[in-house]
Amino acid sequence: MDTNRTAKLEFAVQMSCDSCVNAVKGVLEKDPGVQSVHVDLAKEQVLVETALTSLQVQSLIESTGRRAVLKGMGGNDYLAHSDLM
What we know:
By secondary structure, this protein is of the alpha+beta class. It has 2 helices and 4 strands.
């Protein structure tokens, strides 16, 4: 896997508590194709920098029992323009 070719992915994820956040972060951070994860519980938002495809990331998130919907994707400057930073 070419880690120089990463994308920023934004997902809307059904989360209602800290254990939801921990489950989603845990499954994503274990995958070697994921470089970084930012979870915002209040916005039910997950931002991922990854070399994986959006479907692979969505599958990882949904393996925790939560529904995930891809909201957007971008290149290396995507997070710099995010309202979370």
